[in-house]
Amino acid sequence: MPFVIDFWHWWIFAVVLVTIEILAPSFFALWLGIAAFLTGLALLLFPQLGWEYQLMLFAVLSVLSIVMWRHYYLKNPIVSDQPNLNRRGAQYIGRTVTLSAPIADGVGKIKLDDSTWKVRGPDCAAGKKVRITGLDNVVFTVEVIE
After folding, report:
1. Domain span at residue 54?
2. Which CA distances in Å does 36 have to 51, 57, 68, 94?
3. For residue range 26-40, what is the model confidence (pLDDT) as tens digits?
């Protein structure tokens, strides 16, 4: 007797995918889980559906759910009340600091809290006040305050 895929197989697969999403959040397995659930629902409504059509339906629903989420997300981006929370350097933009090392040939250093950061800006002596105006990876762009 050949193995028959039943609707509850798809629902178990959906639960496994959602569990994977919970344990390792990637926000990808969720959409595949939704597609698996809908495929199981289609099989419940149409029990004569062959396994080839089930797999094709699952593939189409997977792509469709991901594309629909992406479309929705681009139109409604998630807005955070703390956009710089995990961007430590960006939190310092706009801050005025004193140079701990002179800026020579466009490169110098500043001390911020417990760290030393590399800066780029116009040449000037140590001890001068500078304002952080930007961030390029881990190097601040600064301007001298007169």
Report:
1. 7-75
2. 13, 9, 16, 49
3. 888 999 999 999 999
- CATH number for the domain spanning 119: value is 2.40.50.140
Please state the domain count of the chain: 2
* CA neighbours closer than 13 Å in the CB half-sphere of residue 102: 5
Per the CB < 8 A criterion, the answer to whether 116 and 110 are in contact is yes
What residue type is 91 in one-letter code?
Q
Tokens standing for 46?
A: 């149409």
Residues whose CB falls within 8 Å of the CB of residue 82, separated by 6 or more in sequence, listed in order: none
pLDDT on residue 1: 61
pTM over 0.70: no
Could you tell me which of 83, 82, 32 has the C-alpha nearest to residue 58?
32
